[in-house]
Design brief:
There is one protein chain. The protein has one domain (2-111): N-(1-d-carboxylethyl)-l-norvaline Dehydrogenase, domain 2 (Orthogonal Bundle). Helix content is 55%, strand content 0%. It is built from 5 helices and no strands. Helix 1 crosses helix 3 (42-52). It is globular, with a radius of gyration of 14 Å. It starts with a helix and ends in a 30-residue tail after the last helix.
């Protein structure tokens, strides 16, 4: 249950960073706007920093987070969990693209309009259109 909350935070950071990029807002401006704000937790801030640095070295792998999300979604009596289900579908696709062993901050990868797969972890992974 708590890792589902963390997944929501990761997804929120990834989508906000992608939106900022699409709007032409520099990542540092986004980070500065969020710094010290009640809108971002220390965990989400750390993941946003990893996303902006394109650092996919795993602290908490996408695959492990996905396993926890799938467990939450399959729990009898959990009721409808539409946001969790949407994240599961997207993260399954990322894991299927070979990103399961990367940090959850890799959730940003398919939000820029290009799929980034392969290459070393962290900086230096090239975008593949």
């Amino acid at each position: 249950m708590l890792n589902t909350w963390l997944a929501f935070e990761v997804e929120a950071a990834a989508e906000a960073a992608a939106l900022a990029e699409q709007l032409g807002i520099d990542g540092d401006v986004l980070s500065d706007a969020l710094a010290g704000s009640p809108l971002i937790s220390p965990f989400a801030a750390a993941k946003l920093t990893k996303m902006q640095a394109e650092d996919d070295r795993p602290d908490f792998s996408l695959g492990w987070a996905l396993k926890d999300l799938e467990l939450t979604a399959s729990t009898e009596g959990s009721g409808p969990l539409p946001v969790a289900a949407a994240i599961v579908r997207r993260w399954r696709r990322l894991a299927g693209d070979g990103l399961a062993d990367r940090d959850v901050s890799a959730a940003r990868i398919d939000l820029r309009g290009a799929r980034r797969v392969g290459g070393p972890l962290g900086r230096g992974c090239g975008d593949v259109s």
